[in-house]
Amino acid sequence: MIRTRFAPSPTGFLHIGGARTALFSWAYARGHAGSFVLRIEDTDLARSTPEAVQAILDGMAWLGLDYDEGPFYQTRRMDRYRAVIGEMLAAGTAYHCYMAPEELDRLRGEQRQQGLKPRYNGLWRPEPGKDLPLPPAGVQPVVRFRNPSDGMVAWDDLVKGRIEIANGELDDLVIARADGTPTYNFCVVVDDRDMGITHVIRGDDHVNNTPRQINILRALGAEVPLYAHLSMILGDDGQKLSKRHGAVSVMQYDDEGYLPEAVVNYLGRLGWSHGDEEIFSRQQFCEWFDLDHITPSAAQFNTEKLNWLNAHYLKRAHPSRLTALVRPRLAGRGVTITAAPSLEAIIALHQERVANLNELADVAEVFYRDLQPTAELLTKHLTPGTLPLLQSFVADLPAIPWEAAAIGALIKACVARHGVKMPKLAMPLRILLTGQEQTPSVDALLALFPREIVLKRLAVGMQADVLRGSAH
């Protein structure tokens, strides 16, 4: 069975790069009837926080990336790591090193001065016939992995192709600190082995860790998983997307009014393709996704493309679902939603005209607040002759059935009677009712409001100085 994992460090929010890694790992497991494991790598006690853990869980839940096992926390597996270190010490694949930190720093400084690569010199590494120094008093040793001294470590990366590293380039990695706490690269190896991970899909910033991890896995007699290292993501400006440059929390996309299916669809195309398909469901993505069509080159984030996808999904969403998503946004603005007009009806009329949920909330807010049109819009659209036109329309408004067809017929009759074109009446109606120039058809717009609110807003608007001035 294929088993993948997502293993974030809870030192900040779940950003878009981490979300893509999680998505690819999740989809690969789902598409192969495998298991997807969530592991929280929280051994950096100084930087890991419960808030960051919750941000990861919230982000994955919002994206719909459900996991089969976990979350497993590395801080709760310390006894397991120490037990494996004990086994390695007994087997001779690891050893105690008593070199003090300041001694190691001095060694590396000398190596740099000589133009050499700074590295541990193997002073405490046991070798046949080698006499080791006496352990210094009062020094707690670290534990180092006995890395092979010759040969190559190689793997066929499922994204980058064949990668080979000479073992001579790798020094003996510290796998347990002097206080006994295991190090990152060691914990990852034990976890991947214990959890039966078959495919490690992760960012290419981990490529340098891979040869060390492979060697430790082999020393433990474990199966080496297949690795797929994803290329970096560039921002809209072509710079590397990072927490310090442009990367934001996945949940910020929720705050900004994106639908999760739009973000998932967009991330799916960020460095992977299925022919020319641009739009696909979550299920289709799981069926189509493979590791053969991930590009090894950097992917560039395109906000315009994401906005286009979001608008596509908004158009096709059921109005009742969008209503449930817009309602708390309005509540957060202090807007009281009344029985009429129906919020769902407002959304159904406008959902094809907006790019995100916040724009839908902007539109809906107009129907529940007494908004005053700006003087600029009043001056622009309420021209001489507008007042008699509006007065004629308002005079007949109480007598007609309150439905879009009847309102539309009255508008047409009114402009015909006054010998003017449709915008002469439609634009003032839009401005006085919503304070906006762009709306759906004006008859459908008016039908959303209760008749008494329409009459009230038009009556107030017709008292505007610009209209009273235009009547003389």
From TrEMBL:
One of its GO terms (biological process) is glutamyl-tRNA aminoacylation. A motif ('HIGH' region) lies at residues 8-18. GO terms for molecular function: ATP binding; glutamate-tRNA ligase activity; tRNA binding; zinc ion binding. Catalyzes the attachment of glutamate to tRNA(Glu) in a two-step reaction: glutamate is first activated by ATP to form Glu-AMP and then transferred to the acceptor end of tRNA(Glu). ATP binds at residue 243. Residues 321-460 form the Aminoacyl-tRNA synthetase class I anticodon-binding domain. A motif ('KMSKS' region) lies at residues 240-244. Gene3D superfamilies: 1.10.10.350, HUPs. PANTHER family: GLUTAMATE--TRNA LIGASE, GLUTAMATE--TRNA LIGASE, MITOCHONDRIAL-RELATED. This is Glutamate--tRNA ligase. Residues 2-308 form the Glutamyl/glutaminyl-tRNA synthetase class Ib catalytic domain. Its main location: cytoplasm. It catalyses: tRNA(Glu) + L-glutamate + ATP = L-glutamyl-tRNA(Glu) + AMP + diphosphate. Monomer. It is found in: Cytoplasm. It comes from Candidatus Accumulibacter aalborgensis. Its EC number is 6.1.1.17. One of its GO terms (cellular component) is cytosol. Belongs to the class-I aminoacyl-tRNA synthetase family. Glutamate--tRNA ligase type 1 subfamily. Keywords: Aminoacyl-tRNA synthetase, ATP-binding, Cytoplasm, Ligase, Nucleotide-binding, Protein biosynthesis.
